[in-house]
């Protein structure tokens, strides 16, 4: 039996015997414990911090004496003075084994940190970026054995960090000689570890030990808005988030009008590309300013977008996407240099664009698949990304199907009589008392409901200007639940419904939500045409999902995930009341928030996830709704708004369920309670 | 025994039996015969032309009947009408085996063509470029099985041409969809087959079968001139050659003054980089215009240059190269994109820069090594690239040594009293009659010797303006042979030499070559200071060579190769008279012409040669003359101009040898004869 002390690491449980005097970092490396170090154990980087535990550990079968580690040394003193070491922590490269010891590796000292996500079913983000920092000491030049400074740097990186044969970016070559000499042959390198497209490469170099971070951008390039998350590539944390309107809106609100613009104007596609690049470069300046970092520290960027935006980002005319057979120029993932695209980041920065699934199911849907991982799900999950087009994924570990369904812009508040974009003043939540038929509502920008004290004062500035997408869905669903609308989608008359809020308009009736004319505001109503729009949209969505279920050979799904910024705001209950989504246990209908953005973040932070989603997308079976006769059939059958009898037997049970919105982005958790209070009153 | 007909290919001698009806191209492929085809056997490209032979072939043991191949068909007819087929030729993809047949593959139908070089000892250039053309038919898009146009193109290239998984350049993506549709799903692709830095990639795409060529540039980036050869990447032929003065000359004539300019001016290095890039882009426009091709068809470029030019090409301040330990930023070969450097070629064009050997022995020396291949030589060869610095290689199959020797600018006519650059009007050849001591000479721009009829008339335009580098070397050597100069390098007086052309100047004497003052021209003389300059320069060159011989442990070499544009003009005989180079059999002293430029051409045309020279350079042992005490020793001993007694016993025998200059670039072959006639007269 070994007489060497036993070293046990938590939380991994890895253990081994090591001679007295072995640094904890060395022991960790030998055991394959995930303990970070950027300086190679020189007491500079402090990334190898550990927390030793003392006392008796019956679970591990050891008793740890007070002197189980070498004494606190001058390196630790210096580091503590300079930047402060959390009480109880030691530097793993300095603390040496003296006796049996139990050492905890805190989360932030792990190389492959995890950014834990709140939803249990969502995959955690493993931090395993393609570009990392390495500190290294380089041999000085020698006339007797001439070699380039770069070659000696590469040799040092290979020897100390076991990195592959590297190349250097041209920008690094230009800076190399002065930086090496300024750092007295000690430098920190940002190294891109290589992928299918790019050979491993030194991206940036700093003299001495570089204490800062390097960053990456996860960009969700939507047709309406462009959202970016700036992430620390070391910790995986989001350090800033920012968004702008897509400047292409001036060429057309929706995708098809942009495709048309490209068709009607010789340089139309180029103009749109220039516009979106200009917008993104402005966004990058803005987000770097928010995070107070130099834009040149952004070394990587991941883009997710629909196929039309995908083509316009790359400078490709999306002409072919506007007509059958909807041929993509390229469907595979793309690895590029940011400069190729005209993006102003670090001169050597990389860009990764997720693969597209089909001509109507883009890299954004791939990102949703990466975030929600239907291909790794034990149970059958339906993932719906609701926007102007709905991208729908259905699958489990065995198989994943995908399609796109043309829901149109009604879900975004467009083509609705009182509709508007989600903006301050827009009605976003509605409750209609089933007895009195009186509506109460919330508007964006105010936390109060319309029947609460102070509502008028708090909304004075914005006014009450219209209904946004989530508001119109709730309005229609509540009107149905309150008996104001019948199954085929007709609004009853005042006599039929018993409320004066119903009034005739043309050959049908409309329903008054709010009359602001006394204060110079608009009359906000739901017309029967609005109901028709919502019926069409929801029928399209439902039919797409049903079509996939047919192809999968199932009648029901185990779970439904509503994704997309809009999905984040739809109340699952109202979605089910409307018949937007197929039948599923109510508690299994959740919102994934901005899943495409999350997928972008995963691909940014975890280089393995890129391989993963590329493989997944290759295996996703695409269904083209346009050429599937059954889609049309489902569509015709799905326009009705279900009632308790058919085809949704669980509808009645929903009426008293809380309508908690699982949106991660916050939201008022007390709404469910408040609602019941309202009803009771 | 097989009853199938026997097919024999010449010149390879490969043979095999194939069923009746097998196309010759198919048979060639199965046997691994090097028969080209760009259209995949569709009768479009005509690259698979072969010459069948009929009759009895006792050597091969077959008799070929007249009907051994299928009859001339309509595809061949059409091709012959359109572009003409050389008599006796068939298209290998159309002609089918009917009986035993002998088929010759002409040189131009081979994939790996060879560009044969005139000198027996020089390596031929194998045409095996990194970028090639492929014709392919692509599957049309299908809504039922959506995939990107690019992915279907890549699949076709993989299936038809066994190419690896490709990517596409962004410029290809932009053009892809319209080109595929214009070509009705038949296209020609220029494909870069990949290297250590770049993954295999489609560089350009044309609708249908592209009948044109793609091109590459071999660029010899010298401190004084920039020379470029435009090569057809398919045939290997040089289609245009052009040169310009290096615009950096305004920052300093020689390398050290450019290094100084960078030291003295904050943005000095950047200015010099901008200047050389601007110059090269102008040169590329010029050479494309000469060849009457679109500059966008230039897909590859290879650069050779000395270390200072190497750094300035890349935008790196050459500061460190101006001081010990002469550390290069990088010594390895570089693969880059032309756009990264700011070179205006095809948007996806590649750039390859040969490796440097040491801080004073650059990529130009590596190119000389590639061209002259000392590492593949059975006998011991000394390769001298003579310029402002002399780069010297010594070696054989066992080992190669390299050094650089600071010869200074005297060999280029600088710092010589009547010296000038090689330009019209400069004296480049000199003969001094050993009896009468009368000099005769030739000037650049005139084919006549100065004592021939019409010389005065033909040189009236340029005048006789000075002596260039090769002229001063011949002058000093001829003065020594005629007894005008003694061993230590002193010019005798008129009394001592018996000619009035010797006249006192200061404490020593000068020698009058030509007095043009009567016509308003200069008096062209060789002063004793000039002799000293040449002595210093040749001593430096000789000492470098001797130092390598010491290191190699030899006293003599088997062969001497004089390389460099200047080396091309030095008469080997005069170089030996002067003692510029160590003793070697006279017939084994040859000139390699612009070996660096040839090396660049080899690296451009043969991708394997790049690996080869990278490996060779890694194995070359570098000697730094500055820190070798023996260099100084040799230098002191080498300043004398040898006489018949010592140290060059073969000197006397040289006097009557023809001084044929092995310069490949042409030159007057009758000079040797003419000279003897002069002497006789």
Structure description:
The structure is a homodimer of 681-residue chains. By secondary structure, the first copy, chain A, is an alpha/beta fold. The first copy, chain A, has 20 helices and 31 strands. In chain A, helix 5 packs across helix 6, helix 9 crosses helix 17 (607-619) and helix 11 (469-481) packs across helix 15 (572-578). Mean pLDDT of chain A is 88; it is low at 644-681. At the A-B interface, helix 3, strand 11 and helix 4 of A face helix 3, strand 11 and helix 4 of B.
Brief overview:
2 copies of one chain form a homodimer. By secondary structure, chain A is of the alpha/beta class.
Give me the secondary-structure topology.
The structure is a homodimer of 681-residue chains.
Chain A: E1 6-10, E2 15-17, H1 24-31, E3 49-53, E4 55-57, E5 62-64, H2 74-83, E6 90-91, E7 101-104, E8 114-115, E9 125-126, E10 131-137, H3 149-161, E11 167-168, H4 170-182, E12 186-192, E13 201-207, E14 215-221, E15 225-232, E16 238-245, H5 255-264, H6 268-291, E17 298-305, H7 307-314, E18 334-337, H8 338-341, E19 350-353, H9 363-372, E20 381-385, E21 390-396, E22 399-405, E23 426-432, E24 439-443, H10 455-458, E25 466-467, H11 469-481, H12 494-497, E26 502-505, E27 508-515, E28 523-526, H13 528-552, E29 559-563, H14 564-567, H15 572-578, E30 589-593, H16 595-605, H17 607-619, E31 621-622, H18 629-637, H19 651-654, H20 671-680
Parallel strand pairs in A: 1-7, 11-13, 14-17, 17-19, 20-29, 22-31, 23-25, 29-30
Antiparallel strand pairs in A: 1-2, 3-6, 3-7, 4-5, 8-9, 10-12, 12-13, 14-15, 15-16, 18-19, 20-21, 21-22, 23-24, 26-27, 27-28
């Amino acid at each position: 039996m070994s007489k060497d002390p036993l070293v046990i690491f938590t939380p991994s449980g890895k253990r081994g015997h090591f001679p007295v005097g072995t640094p904890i970092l060395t022991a960790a490396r030998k055991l394959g414990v995930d303990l970070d170090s950027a300086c190679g154990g020189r007491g500079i980087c402090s990334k190898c911090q550990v927390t030793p535990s003392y006392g008796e550990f019956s679970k591990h079968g050891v008793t740890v004496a007070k002197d189980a580690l070498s004494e606190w040394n001058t390196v630790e003193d210096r580091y503590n003075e300079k930047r402060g070491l959390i009480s109880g922590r030691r530097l793993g490269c300095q603390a040496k084994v003296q006796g049996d010891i139990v050492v905890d590796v805190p989360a932030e000292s792990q190389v492959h940190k995890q950014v834990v996500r709140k939803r249990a079913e969502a995959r955690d983000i493993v931090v395993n970026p393609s570009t990392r920092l390495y500190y290294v000491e380089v041999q000085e030049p020698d006339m007797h054995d001439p070699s380039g400074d770069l070659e000696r740097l590469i040799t040092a990186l290979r020897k100390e960090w076991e990195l592959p044969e590297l190349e250097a970016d041209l920008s690094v070559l230009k800076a190399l000689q002065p930086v090496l000499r300024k750092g007295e042959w000690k430098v920190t390198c940002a190294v891109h570890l290589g992928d299918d497209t790019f050979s491993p490469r030194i991206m940036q170099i700093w003299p001495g030990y570089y204490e800062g971070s390097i960053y990456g951008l996860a960009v969700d390039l939507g047709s309406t808005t462009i959202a970016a998350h700036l992430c620390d590539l070391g910790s995986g944390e989001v350090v800033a988030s920012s968004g702008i309107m897509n400047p292409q809106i001036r060429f057309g609100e929706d995708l098809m009008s942009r495709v048309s613009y490209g068709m009607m104007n010789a340089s139309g596609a180029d103009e749109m590309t220039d516009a979106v690049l200009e917008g993104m470069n402005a966004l990058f300046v803005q987000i770097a300013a928010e995070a107070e970092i130099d834009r040149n520290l952004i070394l990587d960027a991941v883009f997710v977008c629909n196929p039309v935006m995908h083509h316009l980002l790359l400078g490709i005319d999306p002409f072919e996407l506007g007509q059958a057979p909807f041929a993509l120029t390229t469907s595979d993932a793309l690895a590029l240099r940011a400069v190729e695209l005209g993006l102003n980041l670090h001169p050597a920065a990389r860009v990764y664009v997720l693969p597209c699934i089909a001509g109507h199911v883009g890299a954004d849907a791939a990102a949703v698949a990466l975030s929600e991982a239907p291909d790794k799900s034990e149970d059958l999950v339906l993932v719906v990304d609701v926007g102007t087009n709905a991208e729908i994924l259905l699958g489990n570990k065995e198989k994943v199907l995908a399609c796109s369904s043309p829901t149109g812009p009604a879900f975004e508040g467009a083509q609705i009589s009182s509709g508007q974009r989600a903006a301050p003043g827009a009605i976003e939540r509605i409750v209609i008392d089933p007895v009195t038929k009186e509506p109460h509502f919330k508007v964006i920008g105010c936390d109060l409901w319309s029947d609460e004290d102070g509502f008028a004062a708090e909304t004075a500035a914005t006014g009450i200007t219209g209904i946004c997408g989530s508001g119109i869905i709730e309005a229609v669903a509540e009107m149905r639940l309150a008996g104001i609308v019948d199954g085929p989608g007709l609004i009853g008359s005042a006599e039929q419904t018993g409320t004066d809020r119903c009034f005739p308009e043309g050959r049908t009736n409309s329903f008054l939500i709010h009359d602001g004319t006394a204060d110079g505001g608009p009359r906000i109503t739901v017309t029967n045409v609005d109901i028709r729009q919502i019926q069409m949209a929801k029928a399209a969505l439902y039919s797409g999902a049903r079509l996939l279920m047919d192809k999968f050979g199932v009648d029901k799904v185990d779970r439904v995930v509503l994704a997309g910024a809009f999905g984040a705001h739809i109340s699952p209950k109202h979605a089910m009341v409307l018949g937007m989504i197929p039948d599923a246990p109510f508690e299994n209908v959740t919102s994934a928030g901005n899943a495409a953005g999350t997928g972008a973040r995963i691909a940014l932070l975890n280089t393995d996830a890129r391989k993963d989603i590329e493989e997944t997308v290759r295996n996703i079976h695409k269904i083209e709704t346009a050429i599937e006769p059954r889609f049309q059939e489902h569509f015709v059958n799905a326009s009705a708004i279900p009632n308790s009898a058919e085809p949704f037997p669980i509808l009645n049970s929903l009426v008293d369920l809380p309508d908690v919105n699982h949106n991660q982005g916050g939201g008022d958790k007390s709404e469910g309670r408040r609602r019941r209070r309202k009803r009771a009153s």
